[in-house]
Amino acid sequence: MHSGGTGAPADGGVVSGEPPINFAAHQVRAGGMQGAREDFENMLSLLVRATRPGARMIAANPGDWGIDVLVGDLGGLVAIWQSKYFFPLVKESHQQEIRDSFKSARTNAEKHGYKLNQWILCVPSSMDPPTASWWDSWKKREQQKYKVQIELWDETELRTQLISPDADHVRRHYYESPRVQPSVRPTPAETAVAQLLPPDEDEKLESALFVRQLREAGHAEVTAAKREFFNAELMAREVVDKGVPWEVAALTTADATVHSVWENRFNDACQAQDDPKLPGLHTTVMTDIRTQHNTFASGLPGGVVHSCGLMHRVVDDRRAGWVKHWRQVADEAVDTKELPDPQTAEVAPIDIARGETDEVPVAQLTAVEADR
């Protein structure tokens, strides 16, 4: 009986629990015996190359000179690996094919001027008793007659080679099934869905300051901006209402980050442009926010749309704009919102500045909430 399993070698090869090497895998991979022969030969070429640097395959055009895998110089000494996909057993009917393969390797070496130094027969199975007896006698006779070293890489030797550290990549590629990765629960940000903008909200937001600032900068379409703002508002309210400390802290950080991104880009644009509408500023800022989203918004239950919306909230809070005279636009806007009374503001469970659990007004959690 021949087991397909392998023990853990002392030299650091396959560890306990690795799947067994089953050479029938070539039939499954290639869809039958015909394809399995080629697949086995390809595996053998990689295996020999992994353990014998410089090994190469020889293509049949029209013949392969009796060579499947070669190590050496075709102008000098060579070692040849002969692939034979005899499966599941090497038996008497295969003996003539083995003789013919060795003869082809010898005669082509003589014909083309190189010396055959070593010939290795590679089979993915074991010989039955009569064939094993024949092999031992034939090998001894041929070695003495032609001065060529003859070896056998049967299933046992192939497995020994495949479990070596040098051949680990070959074994994994040909004989391991893809491992199913354990399911990982997605983060809130990965499952965050940007809500559609209700028609009534679309109409109400037309008079919002952030929309006026966009119009002042020459933006004809602002529907996407409204949706971003709307989703950011929903997210911010959820974070404050739930009062989860790390989410509240993340909201504060995200607000400060998008404001900083805008400020840096605004200052650069003012120095580089004479046009008071600062064309391209909005696009540049939003591109930066999208690029940095995974970094500054990792603790928030929102996606890129929500992060862009945080920038619109900063504008709506009179802390930024898209034209040089954005402060004037903000001053001229009619603010219909009532500012919260600091004396009656709700309380949140954490002090962001100190990272402690003292109660502080929600209005102090973020600059965004301070003016709302």
UniProtKB/TrEMBL annotation:
Q: What is the lineage of its organism?
A: Bacteria, Bacillati, Actinomycetota, Actinomycetes, Pseudonocardiales
Task: Give the protein name, as stated in the record.
Answer: Serine/threonine protein kinase
